[in-house]
Automatic annotation (TrEMBL), chain A:
The keyword S-adenosyl-L-methionine applies. InterPro entries: Aminotransferase_I/II_large, Ethylene_sulfur-biosynth, NHTrfase_class1_PyrdxlP-BS, PyrdxlP-dep_Trfase, PyrdxlP-dep_Trfase_major, PyrdxlP-dep_Trfase_small. This is 1-aminocyclopropane-1-carboxylate synthase. The lineage of its organism: Eukaryota, Viridiplantae, Streptophyta, Embryophyta, Tracheophyta. It is an enzyme of class 4 (lyase).
Automatic annotation (TrEMBL), chain B:
PROSITE patterns: AA_TRANSFER_CLASS_1. Its cofactor is pyridoxal 5'-phosphate. It comes from Musa acuminata subsp. malaccensis (Wild banana). GO terms for molecular function: pyridoxal phosphate binding; transaminase activity. InterPro entries: Aminotransferase_I/II_large, Ethylene_sulfur-biosynth, NHTrfase_class1_PyrdxlP-BS, PyrdxlP-dep_Trfase, PyrdxlP-dep_Trfase_major, PyrdxlP-dep_Trfase_small. Residues 154-533 form the Aminotransferase class I/classII large domain. This is (wild Malaysian banana) hypothetical protein. PANTHER family: AMINOTRANSFERASE ACS10-RELATED, BIFUNCTIONAL ASPARTATE AMINOTRANSFERASE AND GLUTAMATE/ASPARTATE-PREPHENATE AMINOTRANSFERASE-RELATED. Keywords: Pyridoxal phosphate. Coiled coil: none annotated. GO terms for biological process: amino acid metabolic process.
Length: 487, 540
């Protein structure tokens, strides 16, 4: 080494990507997550443990899936019935995916969106979960330093998926509670202009529909506004529709694909959809993400990139049969909506009884809960203080709005579909106890300065709200609710 | 891209601009105002030489450039009904449209247009490489001994069909119940469908570590905690690249090398691959002096070399690296303070008398700094299940393991597939038998093909690993050049109807070499292949 000490004194020098915290796991929220990992709730073994309400996982209908797999053993090739297909499946490595799989996904996409639009199997590109899909689309559409506009609050995993390896930036479009967090044209224009002032090239807009974390769906007008804006500025519109099958209430879901089909004068080349089966079907372990682009160049490019996150053919094969079973998918979607609706009603009604309001929502696996009245001042610090009390004393792992880049403190995302009825009941009981007037310990304490938690959980959320938010802080842990939320 | 995000917007914009520039020049796409400008100015100076040559010579191209910009701007915002605006900035005017200066213009929003990224544009044009052309022909008109005896035979794809029957039999014999069978390790739908660790189930890591040890004949044991599972070896290599180098840095790669590296490493990670030519006179063995030369040349260009990447058994040559060479290589990377990536995906697919030596084994026997050593492995080749997408990174560097485990979320293996493989790999009796039988079949096929070729006067490099032989057909080329090689390749594809991988695709410095994969054939196909090659060879 003697000769090259000057240049290589640190031999195991790694890349800036490997050494940066783009993964967001060095955030203080990691400490919060540990509270759950160290003390997870179990109805019998650990009834005092922390209840996980930060994980947007759909476990309400796993029994239906289990039943189907049992009834259709030929679908999984590791059975006697399915083994005859093994050779074709095990060796198939074409990045286009099994034709049956693409057909079944396209059909299911239409169905999950209420049948208002149809999807062409030739435009389906596979990727490793929605995480991989987001990254791939970012790689395809923007160069390092270029930016996408994104309405706040937004899923914090985007900071990692969309930015980490691609070097793409996310610039917030500020949405507010007085508008019910709707995306408005003025806010869109302001965000765009701000980027221009800062000399940042805007390449597109990224929205989630249904929204994560709000649980609301975009109405036709808003979608039109977005599509026209994209057309006018000649920028892309990426719609993350991974929760489209979870719409359990009116208004009816409108996919961007319907707008595209209705209005032929819009330029289709600008529209891209990200989809996944993790939420609608509740199978994140299958790692199935999809990019559906109306732009041929993007389809072709993304398909080549899908080599970096192909879905195992065994899983493709299994899902092709499952999603190809029309009766099953119809029944599954209907039942899943019914159960989500029931759970949502139960949960929001329970909160309502103790005067906690949630943003009115009709989709998703979570509520956007308003606890502003429990803050002693309208600051991020106060929000985090309350959050720490909720984790440590109420023993619920929920996600604070600041991690979603929400511009107003006091909002929290609470997931309700990753537990059974009894656990839900326990969670509600804890909340009720926390906010009940007689309880001077918890709620009141939250309002007071609680120095103890400052020592236990170091939180260093910086002056994000004063800043232009060009560099959004990277928050999230691999296991954090936030991260897993939209995979 | 700057490691520490700057607080002020101006800084951010500047950093972004630099990053853009760095990335576009790294990928060889930067049209580069300066260089291109000079290339225009200098010849024009000659044209207007005499009176104020320098002034006019500078003015004319500037004016031309101005009008070109003007023209482009007018044409850049097509009417809304235009079917494909992104195409406008792709192939037609590549140099100018992708230059970084244009990015800055548009950043001010003077002319919005929805371009795909330059990363995307670069790959969109890769569809005419020999590999794609040949593979397309194979899929359009595939050979079948009975149904389509006149079809194209695929010898360009390193895929092993020789031992698939063994895997199929195992499944039929052992797994009689569904995925959900509680007896098979208490598997239930919630353990199958819900979120699991992104870098692979611990049980799979343990089973794969065991398998790797077995493949390498017990000479070394692997630690499951050093494994990161990925969806195939392709993302494994990309993730490692992202971990070890920044865009614009370079890897040294002994050539000929596997053409997929260009896509896996160059494309999105923006890392340059510098081929280090190996020669036929050395039997295409790795040469340290050549590495040294390439390293110094890169240094002189101001390019930072961050690693040496090599495949062992080599793809496309099929030879194995000797223990001494591996030691020399470790000395080299230690001296230079860089990393080494050993791609060992064919470790279990050896068919010669020579023993395979893993990088991990050399590390065990001598005192080396382990933290710079990384191994890529996968089950696609050695277990013939490429469709299952099982690859892995085996690193001796804890920081790389930590970073890679986070990056693995972009390319995780589906959980049902992991469970299937856990139970298969845990059947050690079957695995032992499989490895043995597979090696035997590889040996038979290899000998059959290489001896047949020899009788036609086609020599191959003596090799002991992989699914292919590396043959010298230079004497049948019309001219000893890349062009001659591609002509011969075309003739093989169109006349003999055989798809081969030409050496140029593997960055081979000597023309006339071809890679022939024999593992997609049956023994009966071999005479057909030989007959077809004979047809072409006899013409020369």
């Amino acid at each position: 080494m003697g000769l090259h000490v000057d240049e290589h004194s640190n031999y195991n020098v790694l890349s800036s990507i490997a050494t940066s915290d783009g993964h967001g796991e060095n955030s203080s929220y990691f400490d919060g997550w540990k509270a759950y990992d160290n003390d997870p709730f179990h109805p019998i073994d650990n009834p005092q443990g922390v209840i996980q309400m930060g994980l947007a996982e759909n476990q309400l209908c796993l029994d239906l899936m289990q039943q189907w797999i049992k009834q259709n053993p030929q679908a999984s090739i590791c059975t006697g019935e399915g083994v005859s297909e093994f050779k074709d499946v095990a060796n198939f490595q074409d990045y286009h995916g099994l034709p049956d799989f693409r057909k079944a996904i396209a059909r299911f996409m239409g169905k999950a969106r209420g049948g208002g639009a149809t999807f062409d199997p030739e435009r389906i590109v596979m990727s490793g979960g929605a995480t991989g899909a987001q990254e791939t689309i970012a790689f395809c559409l923007a160069n390092p330093g270029e930016a996408f506009l994104i309405p706040t609050p937004y899923y914090p995993g985007f900071d990692r998926d969309f930015r980490w390896r691609t070097g793409v930036q996310l610039l917030p479009i500020q949405c507010h509670s007085f508008d019910n967090f709707k995306i408005t044209e003025p806010a869109l224009v302001t965000a765009y202009q701000r980027a221009q002032t800062a000399n940042i090239r805007v390449k597109g807009i990224l929205v989630t529909n249904p929204s994560n974390p709000l649980g609301t769906t975009l109405d036709r007008e808003t979608l039109r506004t977005l599509v026209s804006f994209a057309n006018e500025k000649r920028i892309h519109l990426v719609c993350d529709e991974i929760f489209s099958g979870t719409v359990f209430d009116k208004p009816t879901y409108v996919s961007v694909s319907e707008i595209v089909e209705e209005e032929p004068y819009y330029d289709r080349d600008l529209i891209h959809i990200v989809y996944s089966l993790s939420k609608d079907l509740g199978v994140p372990g299958f790692r199935v993400g999809v990019i559906y682009s109306y732009n041929d160049a993007v389809v072709s490019c993304a398909r080549k990139m899908s080599s970096f996150g192909l879905v195992s053919t065994q899983t493709q094969h299994l899902l092709a049969s499952m999603l190809g079973d029309d009766d099953f998918t119809t029944k599954f979607l209907a039942e899943s909506r019914r159960r989500l609706s029931r759970r949502h009603k139960y949960f929001t009604a329970g909160l309502h009884r103790v005067d906690i309001k949630c943003l009115e929502s009709n989709a998703g696996l979570f509520c956007w809960m308003n606890l502003t009245h429990l803050l002693n001042e309208a600051t991020v610090e106060a929000e985090l203080k309350l959050w720490r009390v909720i984790i440590k004393e109420v023993k619920l792992n929920i996600s604070p709005g600041s991690s979603f880049h929400c511009s107003e403190p006091g909002w929290f995302r609470v997931c309700f579909a990753n537990m059974d009825d009894n656990t839900m009941e326990t969670a509600l009981k804890r909340i009720r106890k926390f906010v009940s007037p007689g309880n001077h310990t918890a709620a009141a304490q939250a309002k007071k300065k609680n120095k103890r938690w400052d020592a236990a959980l170091r939180l260093s959320l910086p002056r994000r709200f004063e800043e232009l938010s060009i560099m959004t802080p990277r928050l999230m842990s691999p296991h954090s609710p936030l991260v897993q939320a939209a995979n | 891209m700057s490691p520490t995000p700057s607080k002020k917007s101006a800084d951010a914009a500047a950093a972004a601009a630099t990053a853009t520039q760095a990335r576009s020049s790294a990928t060889g796409l930067g049209g580069g105002g300066g260089g291109a400008g000079m290339r225009l100015i200098v010849p024009l100076q000659g044209v207007v030489q005499g009176r104020g040559g320098l002034v006019l010579g500078t003015l004319i191209p500037c004016a031309l450039f101005y009008f070109l910009q003007f023209y482009l701007r007018r044409n850049r915002s097509p009417p809304p009904t235009s079917p494909q605006p992104p195409a406008a900035n792709g192939p037609d005017l590549p140099g100018i449209v992708r230059s970084s200066s244009r990015n800055f213009l548009s950043a001010r929003g003077s002319s919005g247009h929805a371009a795909v990224s330059s990363r995307a544009a670069s790959i969109a044009r890769s569809g005419d490489s020999p590999y794609f052309v040949g593979t397309k022909k194979c899929s359009e008109d595939p050979y079948h001994p009975v149904d389509n005896p006149d079809g194209v035979i695929q010898l360009g794809l390193a895929e092993n069909r020789l031992s698939l029957d063994l895997i199929g039999d195992w499944l039929a014999r052992n797994v009689t119940d569904t995925l959900l069978d509680e007896r098979q390790g208490g598997l239930s739908i919630s353990g199958l469908a819900t979120y699991q660790p992104f870098d692979g189930l611990v049980e799979l890591k343990m089973a794969v570590a065991e398998f790797m040890g077995q493949v390498m004949q017990g000479s070394v044991s692997f630690d499951p905690s050093q494994i990161i599972m990925t969806a195939g070896a392709t993302p494994a290599i990309e993730i490692l690249s992202f971990c070890l180098a920044d865009a614009g840095n370079a890897f040294l790669v002994p050539s000929p090398y596997y053409p997929g590296y260009d896509r896996n490493i160059r494309w999105r990670a923006g890392i340059e691959l510098i081929p280090v030519p190996c020669r036929s006179t050395d039997n295409f063995g790795l040469s340290i002096p050549a590495l040294e030369r390439a390293y110094n040349q890169a240094k002189m260009r101001g390019v930072k070399v961050r690693a040496v990447l090599f495949s062992n058994p080599s793809n496309p040559v099929g030879n194995l690296l000797h223990r001494e060479t591996l030691r020399d290589l470790l000395d080299f990377v230690t001296e230079k303070g860089i990393h080494v990536i050993a791609d060992e995906v064919f470790a279990g697919s050896t068919h010669g008398t020579e023993d395979f030596v893993s990088m991990a084994e050399v590390l065990n026997t001598d005192e080396f700094d382990r933290s710079r050593v990384h191994i890529v492995y996968g089950l696609s080749k050695d277990l013939s299940v490429p469709g299952f997408r099982i690859g892995l990174i085996y690193s001796f560097n804890e920081h790389v393991i930590a970073a890679a485990s986070k990056l693995a979320r972009f390319s995780s293996v589906s959980v049902p597939t992991q469970h299937l493989l856990i139970s298969m790999l845990n059947d050690t009796k079957f695995i032992t038998q499989y490895i043995k039988t597979n090696r035997e079949r590889l040996r038979v096929m290899y000998a059959l093909l290489v001896n047949g070729l020899k009788q036609l006067g086609v020599e191959s490099v003596k090799s002991s690993g992989g699914f292919y032989c590396w043959t010298d057909m230079s004497k049948f080329m019309k001219s000893y050049s890349e062009k001659g090689e591609l002509e011969l390749w075309k003739e093989m594809l169109n006349v003999a109807k055989i798809h081969l991988t030409p050496g140029t695709a593997c960055h081979c410095i000597e023309p006339g070499w071809f890679r022939l994969c024999f593992t997609t054939l049956t023994e009966k196909d071999v005479p057909v292949v030989l007959e077809r090659i004979k047809r072409v060879v006899d013409n020369h």
